[in-house]
Amino acid sequence: MNWKEVSKTKDLEAVRKAAAELDVNETDERGRTPLMLFLTNKMPVQAIELLIDQGADLEAEDKLGDTALKKAVKFKQTEAIVKLIEAGAKLDSPHGILATAWNAARGDKNIADLLMETKGAIRLTLTDQEESIVDEVLYEEDKKKMCRKISTIDSPVVLHAIVNGYNWDDGPEPMWCAFENRVTPEITLLDMYELLDGDYWLDQDGTELAQPEDRRWKELAVHLKVRLGQELHG
Predict the structure, then answer these.
(1) Is there a contact between 87 and 56 (Cβ–Cβ < 8 Å)?
(2) Is the per-residue pLDDT at 233 higher than 60?
(3) CA pair distance 3, 191, nearest whole angstrom
(4) According to CATH, where is 1.25.40.20 located in the chain?
(5) Which stretches within the chain are classed as H helix?
């Protein structure tokens, strides 16, 4: 009997027997613990609870840098996510918001919103009213009016949705307004840097920036890099 075999059984009695006889924190060649294997193979949540009760290490990382919580996110194990949080799994990462389970969950808003206690996280599921505001801004054809609307928004959640829904081919000015809005959260600024391909613009010198719009993109990348310096390095 070994953990890899047990993790594929869905048999709670086999789990109990293994937990009594085997090390619940041993690791395989990929650095995965039994808890990670259970999450990867979508074992019943009762099996996850058994390992937790036997002292499974919630913060161990495999060779990919994944914790049990990140595995639960990756394999969309909603019940297991709740159990891990209840058991004390850490939501924050010393490497910043981009290294958290919340960030890994952003492709599924419902799962991400379970991890809202993560430092720097933002709610991704919008209310009907918030959706209406976002649509009003994104479908505004007059860019000056769009900028004015973005400048007056006082909701980090709405600003985050606007930045991530913006058509970046429409020019830099609306995103400058988002950058200058004081309530725009750090994670949104990090998204902005990625969406505008900040590293690309920072690599361009003066001779490659013939158009005023290109210069504005580079300026935005520079300003984002300065404000986010440590996060972008971490």
Answers:
(1) no
(2) no
(3) 39
(4) 3-90
(5) 3-6, 12-21, 34-40, 45-53, 68-74, 78-86, 101-104, 109-112, 128-138, 143-152, 156-165, 173-180, 186-195, 198-203, 212-233
DSSP 167: -
- Give the tokens for residue 72: 């639960």
Under 8 Å between Cβ of 108 and 139? no
CATH number of 3-90: 1.25.40.20
Residue 148 banded pLDDT, cuts 50, 70, 90: very high
- 151-206: per-residue pLDDT in tens? 999 999 999 999 999 999 999 999 999 999 999 999 999 999 999 999 999 998 87
Distance from C-alpha of 102 to C-alpha of 97, rounded to nearest angstrom = 8
